[in-house]
Amino acid sequence: MASEMAAIAAQLVAPGKGLLAADESNRTIEKRFRSVGVESTEATRRDYRELLFTAPGMEQYISGVILFDETIRQATADGVPFPELLAAKGVLPGIKVDKGLVDLPFFPGERFTQGLDGLEERLEDYRQRGARFAKWRAVIAVSDRLPTLPALRANAEALARYAGLCQVHGLVPIVEPEVLMDGSHDIEACFQATEATQHELFEALARYRVAFEHLILKPNMVLAGADCPRQAGPEEVAEKTLQCLKRTVPAAVPGIAFLSGGQSDTTAAANLKAINQRAAQVGAPWPLTFSFSRALQAGPMAIWRGQAENRAAAQQAFLDRARLAAAAVAGG
Fold first, then answer.
1. pTM for the full model?
2. Per the residue annotation, which of 96, 135, 218, 240 is the catalytic one?
3. If residue 216 lies in a helix (H) or strand (E), which one and from where to where?
4. Which residue from 21, 27, 104, 303 could staple onto 110, CB 3.0 to 4.6 Å apart?
5. Which pLDDT does position 262 carry in this prediction?
6. Rounded to an integer, what is the distance from CA 192 to the centroid of its chain?
7. Which pLDDT value is given to residue 1?
8. Average pLDDT, integer, range 274-282
9. Is the pLDDT assigned to residue 332 strictly greater than 80?
10. Which residues span the domain enclosing 108?
11. Radius of gyration of the chain (CA)
12. Helix (DSSP H) and strand (DSSP E) numbers for the chain
């Protein structure tokens, strides 16, 4: 099982490829569909995900796809289950297994990810359905008083317990501790919050005896808050991000796949390109790739708008963005 997980982790961060995060909850995708005038139903969600997964040649740029619980149970119009469709393309199917966010009691403004109850049974079911890796997301807010240490530790503990259960069941865990872009904080505040978050995460993973060699880290880039008057350029983002990672992430981790976190497709690709260029200069020990959702999907969704006649154009827009992100992995 260990050798299989090592091979899966290596495939997820294969050179020139990254991950498509297509694991939006029904509530989240409803908001995104509404913004382009599409009603969110089981059928429209299936049609949209099929559009992405059947885009011709997407496997040239995408190594794995993170699915939602509904999506892993769906099939193409021709009846091919989505995990089977992806596997036939050489793309690894994965699954989001957390149950979303709740407020952390007595810590205003901070949240905790639920979903550990019943997780073992869900992991076994997902593996039988074809999943080969999983994902759990924690969110960390930043302000003049946040994050607090109890919130960091609560989320790190949950990520570690999830990761251990995944490895027991032969699934590679993606651990996603996202320091949010929401707010007016500067890049230094993001750096401090990200460093503290990742320190707590890897200490918890070690306590729970999780094998670093068989997991993928999905972190935020180190960025100023979306409302900060001064937004850092790609070179500063790259410098701060790599400085933070080198302080906190063990060299044994087989790869890092950055989330886009609300960045536009061009901004996310520009920052990823700069990060990989700097990584080549300073000798970072891990492959650095992407695990994007909105940065790959916002444009295609706006073109599609639920209309079958827009399908090919939407697929091309998706491929264009995937190609851009894949080029950034190579620093080009």
1. 0.97
2. 218
3. strand 216-217
4. 104
5. 86
6. 21
7. 81
8. 96
9. no
10. 2-329
11. 19
12. 12, 10
Q: What is the mean pLDDT of residues 52-61?
A: 98
Q: Judge contact between 204 and 212, C-beta under 8 A.
A: no
Q: Which two tokens stand for residue 44?
A: 């429209």
Q: Which of 36, 32, 37, 173 is nearest to 95 (CA)?
A: 173
End-to-end CA distance of the chain: 36
CA distance 12 to 293: 16
Name the active-site residue from 176, 195, 240, 273: 176
Task: Give the containing element (helix H, strand E) for 66.
Answer: strand 62-67
Helix (H, G, I), strand (E, B) or coil at 37: coil
Strand ranges for 250-296 from DSSP E: 256-258, 288-292
Peptide bond into 147 cis (omega under 30): yes
Residues 114, 83, 171, 32, CA torsion sign: negative
Instruction: For the chain, give the mean pLDDT.
Output: 97
- Residues 263 and 241: their CA atoms lie apart, in Å, by 15
Q: What is the helix (H) or strand (E) element at residue 18, kind and residue range? A: strand 18-21
- Segment 213-253, tens digit of pLDDT: 999 999 999 999 999 999 999 999 999 999 999 999 999 99
**CB contact set of 279 (below 8 Å; sequence gap of 6+):** 238, 242, 288, 331
Give the largest Cα separation in the chain, rounded. 53
Could you tell me the CATH number of the domain that includes residue 156? 3.20.20.70
Residues of the chain with pLDDT > 70: what percent?
100
C-alpha torsion angle, residues 320, 257, 96, 105 (rounded to 10): -130
Residues 175-192 have a mean pLDDT of 97
Looking at the structure of the chain, the number of domains it has is 1
Residue indicated by tokens 């139903």: 41
Residue written as token pair 């990823």: 272
CA angle 293, 295, 297 (to 5 degrees): 65
User: Is 218 among the catalytic positions?
Assistant: yes
CB distance 319 to 58 below 8 Å: yes
Q: What is the pLDDT of residues 199-220, one digit of tens each?
A: 999 999 999 999 999 999 999 9
Compute the distance between CA of residue 281 and CA of residue 284 in angstroms, rounded to an integer: 8
